[in-house]
Amino acid sequence: MKYSIVKNDYEESKKIAVELNELLKAKKWKEDNKKPDYIFVVGGDGTFLKAVEIYNTIVNKVTFVPIKSGGIGFYTNHNRISDVKEIISDIENQKPIEISVLEANDYKIVNEIKIINSLRPLEADVLIDGELLETFKGTGLVFSTSGGSTGFSKSHNGAVIIDENNIFQMLEIAPISNNNFRTMNAPIIFSRKHTVEVVIKKANDVEIIVDSKKCKVPNHKTIKIKLSDKNIKMISKNSEKLTKTKILNSIFTTNKPYN
Q1: Which of 18, 62, 12, 8 shows the shortest CA–CA distance to 36?
Q2: What pLDDT does 248 receive?
Q3: DSSP E strands: which ranges in 70-216?
Q4: Which of 61, 65, 129, 253 is deepest in the core (most CB within 10 A)?
Q5: Is 80 exceeded by the pLDDT of residue 62?
Q6: What domains sit in the chain, N to C, each tagged with a CATH number?
Q7: Model pLDDT for residues 178-231, shown as the tens digit of each residue
């Protein structure tokens, strides 16, 4: 088996990476940072997104093993440092869980894609399955996955999505609204069967941000967004114990778990 390790800069993470290397090499695994079979992510969600960015072109062909060491982690919360030896000992026989990703043209998106113009109103047609929904004018549009719905989208009054694999949403950011012009101005939820196209009318000063990476506006000025038919695979030792509801409860509320 081939592996790669992506870690943050915390001293604890560096120590975990050293231990991982020793454990994996003892199993005769080979470190390969170009075409690994398994990618060990030591850190929080920011580190996980970094790993997805690095391996974006083969993201559906690898298995991620996130280990929480750092900040808030929806993706990395599933495994703890104390789980490392147990995970490694029987990793080939563990069935991965799957998390959905969005496809936007050639990009695979774990959290969200932002289409934004901070200098002047973004002008774009929004089509659902080839039919015009609206011509948008405003600061921008954001499309988020279930996992991404608790980040940027939530901070802008988007919906929090519990369904892990079948739903994504579009959120308008600061749309123009007056007596002469209106948009939906509400989160819109799409299912796996829907494809949304954003046709940018004026590309000057438009930024496209895929998770944490800035991308160029394509020459044809059209961004086609849908849920991928291939999910990201992830080893999660505690997937049954640590549900999304429990994570939401612990991070966003002050309520005690229900007994």
Answers
A1: 62
A2: 80
A3: 97-99, 102-104, 107-109, 112-116, 122-128, 131-144, 167-175, 188-191, 196-200, 207-210, 213-215
A4: 65
A5: yes
A6: 2-100+231-252 (3.40.50.10330), 103-227 (2.60.200.30)
A7: 888 989 999 999 999 999 999 999 999 999 999 978 999 999 999 999 999 888
- Whole-angstrom distance, CA of residue 219 vs CA of residue 183: 26
Residues 120-148 have pLDDT tens digits of 999 999 999 999 999 999 999 999 999 88
> What is the distance between the alpha carbons of residues 134 and 198, in angstroms, rounded to a whole number?
10
Rounded Cα–Cα distance for residues 213 and 49 (Å): 10
**Residue 90, number of CB atoms within 10 A of its CB:** 8
Active site (catalytic) residues: 45
Cα distance from N-terminal residue to C-terminal residue, the chain? 43
Q: Tokens 């049954």 map to which residue? A: 240
- Asked if residue 169 lies in contact with residue 190, where contact means CB atoms within 8 angstroms, the answer is yes
Q: Which of the two residues, 250 and 228, has the higher pLDDT score?
A: 228
Structure tokens given for 110: 């774990």
Q: What is the DSSP letter of 146?
A: T
